[in-house]
Amino acid sequence: MMEIIPAIDIIGGQCVRLTEGDFAQQTTYDSNPLEVAKRFESHGIKRLHLVDLDGARAKKPVNLAVLESIASNTNLTIDFGGGIQSEEAVKQAFDAGAAQITAGSIAVREPETVKSWLLKYGSEKIIIGADFKGTNIAISAWTEESKYPLQDFISGYVKTGATLFICTDVSKDGKLQGPSTNTYRHLKLTLPEAGIIASGGVTTVEDLEQLQEIGVKGAIIGKAIYEGTISLKDLERFIC
């Protein structure tokens, strides 16, 4: 079964969503991320994608207290991203209760560093963030499309032992216009050994059904939950 992974993005300790990663397009949905996480868990959700947006800007984790609170008060398996730019940050996240961390921009800028983390912590604990626009990797906080093809980026990390990839179409993130199903289908066909987690644009139950049919490992759902286009009740049938 495809894993259902709701997202909580944190700014100032509160649960927010951005559109296309733009801090100027921010909506605050809840002042208590722990209560949001508990609601997810009450519907059978087992995974959580927790993003420290303050940390992403500061280039170091800022909202570790939120991570620690959710980890110690729920049984959710949490992957934590945002500000993971050093081994110290990786240790801080694991110490605060993260089961996994997502290596985002550093995976593009410093592949040797991330490869060392894969060797030290294992491929189940280090997720590679593959943010993309079109067919290329997106960099500079999503404002710039690189010349680095998404497929080559993932393939390179597969060769070094990575197994999990959060693939976010930044042109669709937060827009509620549907995910890049064709991109995920192509990745599954050409890189079957890569565990692809689809992110960006998931809007309806039909989107989830298509992604499950493609065979992605997981789907991250953010704004669709908060705006009510997918209910937590809808998600229950996708959960083992």
Automatic annotation (TrEMBL):
Gene3D superfamilies: Aldolase class I (3.20.20.70)
Catalysis performed (reactions): 1-(5-phospho-beta-D-ribosyl)-5-[(5-phospho-beta-D-ribosylamino)methylideneamino]imidazole-4-carboxamide = 5-[(5-phospho-1-deoxy-D-ribulos-1-ylimino)methylamino]-1-(5-phospho-beta-D-ribosyl)imidazole-4-carboxamide
Pathway where this protein functions: Amino-acid biosynthesis; L-histidine biosynthesis; L-histidine from 5-phospho-alpha-D-ribose 1-diphosphate: step 4/9
Keyword field: Amino-acid biosynthesis, Cytoplasm, Histidine biosynthesis, Isomerase
Domain of life: Bacteria
Catalytic residue positions: 9 (proton acceptor), 131 (proton donor)
Localization per Swiss-Prot or TrEMBL: Cytoplasm
Alphabetized GO MF terms: 1-(5-phosphoribosyl)-5-[(5-phosphoribosylamino)methylideneamino]imidazole-4-carboxamide isomerase activity
Pfam families: His_biosynth
The protein's enzyme class: isomerase
EC number: 5.3.1.16
GO BP, one annotated term: L-histidine biosynthetic process
A GO cellular component entry from the record: cytoplasm
NCBIfam families xrefs: 1-(5-phosphoribosyl)-5-[(5-phosphoribosylamino)methylideneamino]imidazole-4-carboxamide isomerase
Family per similarity comment: Belongs to the HisA/HisF family.
Name of this protein: 1-(5-phosphoribosyl)-5-[(5-phosphoribosylamino)methylideneamino] imidazole-4-carboxamide isomerase
Species of origin: Pontibacter cellulosilyticus
